[in-house]
UniProtKB/TrEMBL annotation:
Domain HTH gntR-type: 9-77
Protein name (Swiss-Prot/TrEMBL): GntR family transcriptional regulator
Lineage per the UniProt record: Bacteria, Bacillati, Bacillota, Bacilli, Bacillales
InterPro entries membership: Tscrpt_reg_HTH_GntR, WH-like_DNA-bd_sf, WH_DNA-bd_sf
GO molecular function, one term: DNA-binding transcription factor activity
Keyword DNA damage on entry: no
CDD domains hit by this protein: WHTH_GntR
SMART domains, per database record: HTH_GNTR
Keywords associated with the record: DNA-binding, Transcription, Transcription regulation
SUPFAM superfamilies named in the record: Winged helix' DNA-binding domain
Superkingdom of the organism of origin: Bacteria
Keyword Membrane in annotation: no
Length: 125
């Protein structure tokens, strides 16, 4: 697991964001076992308390669940997957809109360029 941490956001928030991205892209599948808190802390070279806080928050958000002494797993709730996907899309769109507004490009021109670029990027996949 490779996460590049920034200095702006708390580490536990960045860990949660990483899990959300992995869930949204299908790298983590429903019901998949994830590393223990201690394993995650070792892999990411973060404080175990930070890993614990991230897992606690992810459990509260319904991203993961832990039953008894069993390993934590990614949720199987399709509504949670959809919510995570929408959240990530809205964050990306919001950042894009904020940046494009500063150069006063007409909306129809922006939409046309986005569509052209989206299709071009898709062709190379």
């Amino acid at each position: 697991m490779n996460v590049k941490f920034n200095n702006r956001d708390p580490v536990y928030v960045q860990v949660i964001q990483h899990f959300k991205e992995q869930i949204a892209t299908g790298i983590y599948e429903p019901g998949q076992e994830i590393p223990s808190r201690r394993e995650l802390a070792n892999q990411l070279k973060i404080n175990p308390n930070t890993a614990q806080r991230a897992y606690k928050e992810m459990e509260e958000q319904g991203l993961i669940f832990t039953e008894g002494n069993l390993p934590s797993r990614i949720t199987s709730d399709e509504k949670v997957f959809q919510r995570v996907r929408e959240e990530l899309i809205l964050e990306a769109v919001g950042a894009f809109v904020d940046s494009i507004r500063t150069i006063n490009v007409p909306l129809n021109e922006v939409l046309q360029l986005v569509e052209q670029n989206y299709h071009k990027k898709g062709d190379s996949l």
